[in-house]
Amino acid sequence: YDRVKKLDLIINAQPRHNYIIGDKFIEFWGKPRAEMAYRFRDWLDNGIVVAFGADQPISVRCTPLMQIYLAVTRRIGTGDVLGPDQGISREEASKHRGTPDVSAARRVAI
Asked: What whole-number distance in Å separates Cα of residue 101 and Cα of residue 18?
């Protein structure tokens, strides 16, 4: 995490990926390693800037409310929960769903 902060990087994550292919993460990586994907709680607790994106057109029908729900619950398409310790609050998910996306875009453009 220190290196990410030192390099002033922004993590652009798509919470819907866990939902769409979380079962494949488990199938190919095994559950313990799959639960290491998309470490939202760890990133925020370590001061990493996180921006949630929709990754269109890959994550079709991905609304802001769905992104928030999936970042909070960590649910995957099978109904299982992947990495429950990495769920974040609704307030945190709402914050990272909008403003950091704009901030990230500005930083990339500079």
From this structure: 19
Segment 87-90 long-range contacts (CB within 8 Å, at least 24 positions apart): 87/40, 87/41, 88/40, 88/41, 88/44
Q: Which residues pair with 13 in a beta bridge?
A: 52
CB 97 within 8 A of CB 52: yes
Beta bridge partners of 50: 11
Residue pLDDT, tens place only, 6-39: 998 888 888 988 999 999 999 999 999 999 999 9
What are residue 81's DSSP bridge partners?
75
